[in-house]
Structure formats: C-alpha cells, structure tokens
Amino acid sequence: MSECIGFLGAGNMASALVGGLLARGQVPTSLFLSDPLEPALAAHAQRGCRTTTDNAEMLRTADIVVLAVKPQMLASVLAPQLELLRARRPLLLSIVAGATVAGISQLLGGGDWPIVRAMPNTPALVQAAATGYYCSAAVTAPQRQQAQQILAAVGLALRVEDEALIDAVTAVSGSGPAYFFLVMQAMQRAGEALGLDARTARALTLQTALGAAQMAVTADVGVEELRQRVTSPGGTTQAAISVLEQGGLMACFEQALAAAHQRAGELGRQLQESAR
Hints:
Strand order of the largest sheet: 3-2-1-4-5-6-7-8
Radius of gyration: 21 Å
Strand content: 5-15%
CATH superfamily of the largest domain: NAD(P)-binding Rossmann-like Domain
Shape: elongated
Distance between the termini: 36 Å
Oligomer: single chain
Helix content: 40-55%
CATH class of the largest domain: Alpha Beta
Structural class: alpha/beta
C-alpha cells in the first residue's frame, strides 16, 4: 500500500497494526504516528516510521488516518483539527471502542465522512486478531480495500453490512478472549486440584486450547462435529461434558454475550451523548 497511513495515538492496538503492516512489507516511512507521549513513539521511530507529537503535522500528510485514542479523548483530539480534516478528508479508520459513525461525524461537524468503524481484539498484539468492521456510505470501494488490508495485517478481518452488528462483534470477538482466558483459568485450577503442579497444569491447558483452536480453524467440519468426535459414549470426555451441560453452560454463554452486547450499545450511546 503506497498511501501514507497516519495514527492518532500510538498505544497497544496502534502498535499492533504497525507491526502487522511492517511484517507484510509496508514501507516504514509510509507509517506516521502521532502521540503526545514521546516514549510511546520511540520504538516506532527506531523501526523507521515517522513520528511526531504534533497531530496536525501527521494529518497534513496522511491519506488514511487510524483513530486509535481512548474514547474519552476522541472529542478533544479531533476538535483542534477540524479545519485540516475538512480540507483533506482522509479515510478515517476508527478502532475507538463505542465510537459510532454518527458520533464521529458529529464530532467533525456533521456531513458524510468516509469512516470505517472497526472492532479488533487484543490478539492483534500477536497478529491473531478477529476484527469486524463497518463502512459508512461515503467509503469508496478502493478505500474499503485499504481498510481491509490494514486490519488483515493483524489477523482475520470481516466486514458487516449493518453498523448495529458491531455490538454483536464486540460481544463475540471483542470481549471473547477474556471468555477463553476464564475457561483456561478454570481448567488450570481444576488440574491443580487433581494433583498437577501449577506449571504442568498451565502448560497442558494452554497447549490444549491452542491445539483445539488450530483443529477448529483447519477442519472441514464444524465445532459441534469435532466435539462429538472426541466424546465417546460412556467415556471420560462424556462424563465431563455431561456436567457442563447440566450446569447450563450453553445458556450461560448466551446470557453472557447478551449482556456484553447490551453494554456495548449503552457505551456507544453514552459516548455519542457526551459529544453533543
């Protein structure tokens, strides 16, 4: 990608995207990061990326701007740059949690802006993200492809046609790593209760999680079929699965994701109201 990609904010997720892009052959000088904290920029400068503590300097150059600041900072970061943004109208790729297309447009004074709203998850830090994204009506086909390439640099990137589905993405994959970490924690603790030392219980749990995920990704059948294949009638796995089913595991996950989905919508509305 030959365009200059700018980053408003150089935190963990921006750094993950930069690392993914560089790994895919992006020219370092085409990446321009802006952050008020110079220590956050140091590692990027060492890799040959352009850096600055002046947002306007970056915005005067960038063709694509990744909004990578904390939600409560978005309004204060954009406000001083409205004139410059209106003059250049770059593609805006937002990874700001809860920031809707309408909310970002409102902060920019209204109108149709080319905005891509994305929800990557923390495995982006190891280039294994699952990202859902939505494109506003003003995003052109080439811009949509550019956004896809940037997000895919850190893992899977899937476009949704309805922005409301971003809340579902948040519930499934945005918060999803924590669900699996909780399951891993529970398995490790249970293994220790059965007599394994902590190191062994942890290693077995993590490798099992990794192996199961790898099987699910590469298999030509669904996860239900994979589960059935390792669940012999009357066997040890069946004994464990029966306990989980009797405990209402499926219903618990449905309720948990519904709660995350509801909270994602609430946070988005709160952020939009605060911008008024």
